[in-house]
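Hello forum,

I keep getting stuck at the same step: I have a sequence, I want structure tokens, and every attempt I make locally crashes halfway through. Rather than fight my setup again tonight, could one of you with a working pipeline run this one for me? It's a single chain of 587 residues.
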Amino acid sequence: MSNDLHVFVRDGQVYTSLTALLLPDVIPYEPPWDPWEDYDRSPDDSDTPLTTRWAYGTRPWFPLIPLNPSFNGPIFECLNHSRFLLLTEVDTQGKHILHCDIRGKWVDLEQKLLWCMERLGAGLLIPWGTKLPRPPTAYGYQRSHTDANLAKKVAMRSCNAFLLIAATCSWHIMSRQYRNPGHAWTALLTDDPKYPIPAEWVLELSRSFVGDLTTNVPRTGALISSIHCPWQVQLPMFERFLILIWVRQTSAAVDSTLRHYVPSEAAIARATEALQWGQTHDSTWGQPDDSSWGQDGGEQPVSAAPEAHADSLFPIPQPHSGQMRGEDWKTFFVRRRDVNKKKEETETPARRQSRQSRERAAMNHSIPGKSSTAVVFEWQSNDEFGGFYECIHLTKAEIPMTWTLYSKSTRVYDSFRNEWDLCDVLDPTSVPNGDWEEDDFPLPPAPSEPAPAPLPPPLSSFLRDIETHFGRYEVAPSAQYTRSVERFVSILHFHLGYQLAASTSTPRGRSTTFNDWARKTHWTHLCKLIGDDDNANITSIPDAQKHVITCFIGYLVTLPQSQLSDIPPDLWDLGSQPSLSASNAHI
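Reply #2:
Ran it on my machine without issues. Output:
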């Protein structure tokens, strides 16, 4: 058995993985699978994009959803908002809606990502039955709501929906790189004959969590039952790119696609023994299939569970909340689950009947009333401690308004303690029950024929991302430019007036002197002429763009000053109508 196969044991279940050293914090409910019918019977995964889920044949893009992505850079910085700092406004009807400035940027980003998803997926062999994610607009960020907190919650749900589109783009990129390793996927976007996307924008996309397919970007991964693998074609690709895949071993027949995930009996025994030695509820670290701890020279495994640090980095928990200092919400619910399981083992029949009766009564009431003895806690993010979630007790007066901001999937009832926990991070994209608009908003019917292709975004939308982001920084002298594409483009654009939207077609009106100069000039010499001595860092610029840049510099070098106005205006922005110099303070 391979050294790369790791074996885990949790709650009596055996899991294996070739790409993961840890199990997910929470193993979600496994939906039933019927080989004669559709086996995707669980709720739509697009409503919970930030957690590891079971594999579904209709959503092979789901394992590529980035975990805790960094919304920086010119493309995704418009999503860099927390729920508590997100701006809303009141519309003409007195309702609350996402601020128009943010809303406009999200609309532009949605259009650009949908267009990229369409172009990157064009011509690929998509598995039959694949369902692409719904656009973020379908999650409600452009609609108004009766409450500001509700408008923020719906906006954050929509913000998470952008990750679904991003994951699908990553899936298309991965598919292309897996089948054609030597082909640059960026050329599909930059060299489109009708609607080319600026190379600078595509370069930033390749550096983001969309184009970075290395392990530097953690992703959700997926769980698979050994009975059936819905991704016979996708699984080898996921393994090649080290996407986290866990396989739950069953006593039933094993799918032939997953035979290399079947552990030996000795490996299972070692993982079980490691669990008994450890202090956690499961074997946090997987045991390699051929490990030899316990034998000569072997080391005894130790628990790798993080300990709660009771120091100034964490707030002091509220009395009677049950939360320990430094304990995050995930650890809290796991610990309480284990405590309740032990209580249930020693529970008398009479107490069990009383507890279950109390639980049914709590579930049948929409909200704890004034006469209810149930205690309600809300998990609130504390910005003073880096967004750490702490368990806060709600008063009777606070319960009605707060309760409506949560849904069935974000309310947890503990029948042993007669307590409710309201925690939106349990399901970040859930629909609040208190939003009657959301409850009555029907999902779009399944189309009888394929949806039309998205409209191409205007070129100015891509350029605005680059200019807005990099235009905020002072332009230094040429000798001080850093060795990067951003600075190289900054020199051309802000210093020399090069149009980022310059056409890749052959420039017109070229003289013999111009042609001779362009033919003799090498790219490395041109880079030094502009001020970037390290041309190795800008090799990602497409050849078509290199040619246009060479022609642009050729005009500046060969034309006398009196004829510079002859440079085509779509190539030079400092001609007869210098819009760039009028709008940019750096020139």
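The mean pLDDT is 77. If your local run keeps crashing, start a new thread with the error log.
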